[in-house]
Amino acid sequence: MKTIIVNSYRVNPDERIIPYIECVSKHSEFVVVPDVVIYDFDTSDYDALILSGSPDLISCGAFSKSYLEFLKYNRLPTLGICYGHQLLAKAFGAKISSQKYPIEKEELIRIIKLDPIFAGLDSEFIAQESHREYVEKESLVKAGFELLAVSESCEVEAIKHIEYFFYGVQFHPERSGRNGQIIFENFFNLVRKLRGLG
After folding, report:
1. Model confidence, pTM
2. What are phi and psi of 162, to 5 degrees?
3. CA distance 43 to 136
């Protein structure tokens, strides 16, 4: 299996992407590609995408237009994380809003719809939050996503596209210990099954 990790960090990108690499490398070969060049990257030989977080604010226009365009037409199995989750939702028409203050804490995530991405997790589990923006719940259906999980601090913690193999999580599984590792393991197991990789 081969995975593209799309890196959206602008400051110290090589350092910030390390936790993603550590999680992905347990399940797949990988390449790291900056989001500003992903539109021109040949994805035909790859099996999955991981979209990284970023402190950039989408509601303020801080995103690559070519990256957004790429996400509209990408059909590789995809897991968007934080910023990547938000931009994936935006690519299909969901709205992104910003809070007054950033959320930086461990949060209790509550699963509201059972899904294989959560296999092995309790109905409530702890994950690390680090974000200021979020996907608006009311915009999900029109964008083709269903809501999978919520928390006290965020109305949209996890989503799944109703047609394509796209997942998004607002929390950071790459920094959430064993619970986050389970998310990655489930994602890659689903990709292997989908693509007949055993």
Report:
1. 0.96
2. -75, -15
3. 30
Annotated active-site residue in 27, 82, 85, 154:
82
Count of other CB atoms within 10 angstroms of residue 183: 26
pLDDT tens for the chain, 198 residues: list them. 999 999 999 999 999 999 999 999 999 999 999 999 999 999 999 999 999 999 999 998 999 999 999 999 999 999 999 999 999 999 999 999 998 888 889 999 999 999 999 999 999 999 999 999 999 999 999 999 999 999 999 999 999 999 999 999 999 999 999 999 999 999 999 999 988 876
Q: How far apart are CA 80 and CA 37, in angstroms?
A: 17
- Cα 156 to Cα 103: distance, rounded to the nearest angstrom: 14
Active-site position among 107, 129, 157, 174? 174
Known catalytic membership, residue 157: no
Rounded Cα distance between 185 and 178, Å, is 10
Active site residue 172: yes
As a whole number of angstroms, the distance between CA 169 and CA 193 comes to 21
- 2-194: CATH architecture: 3-Layer(aba) Sandwich (3.40)
- The verdict on whether 82 is a catalytic residue reads yes
Residue 19's closest CA among 128, 125, 173?
Answer: 173
